């Protein structure tokens, strides 16, 4: 069992690093040299992206240096050469278009620090390298197998540090991207995006819903996220509003489009609006007794309840064994 007070204290110590002392000992200089050598030596990226990296680092020197130092001094050092987006993360909108670069730095550091604490450094490194962590396996109406897995995707990394996905075989059907964060002594989850498969999305989701006894894949993932949050003793799940999504920022306004109706999705799951425009999702869904269901639908609802309970138990066992 994790001691959350010790975890919070460790995080506060991390945030309280003395900048002047680090400069004096050369720690920042070494981290800067490392970041530049890794980023500029990468043959997979264009000259334009390297120049932009230098310009953005120069525009926000203190925040950039602190992020490079965090990467350089933690388990992320091995992952950065394979994932250039880790170095660029501090320069791009993350989770919510409203947050400033200092808040972005805090959220990024909290997420990666907490991920290693919650799942172990080895498991977290494996997810950074492209492996997924299967939390539960469920069987649909037609005896088709689905799995709920944690993974990190290059396509969704601006919306969250991790993604929770519903897979059928190797095909990703739907996912929710989120990050771990701290609020005082409490552990939080912040959801930054919802994604569907790219090809034949409407037909695929319709067939999947039918095979899951009428449960929409996105609502099943929300329930899986709630189960994950409860097992990890999170105190809240903050979900992004459409107007606050990172692709609503000026940087992506003309290059990205948002198809998901975020606000109605969170509201349908029982979330309430927050002062910043986002939504707070309750940790437990409101269960309606089977006796109050229409008599001609009770068999289907019984199957839904069985599928959901099996998923919750699978998530619990996977986290205990992790």
UniProtKB/TrEMBL annotation:
InterPro entries linked to this entry:
DUF535
- What is this protein's record name? DUF535 family protein
Q: Which organism is it from?
A: Undibacterium umbellatum
Organism domain of life: Bacteria
Query: According to its UniProt record, what is one Pfam family this protein matches?
Result: DUF535
PANTHER family membership: HOMOLOG OF VIRK (PTHR38785)
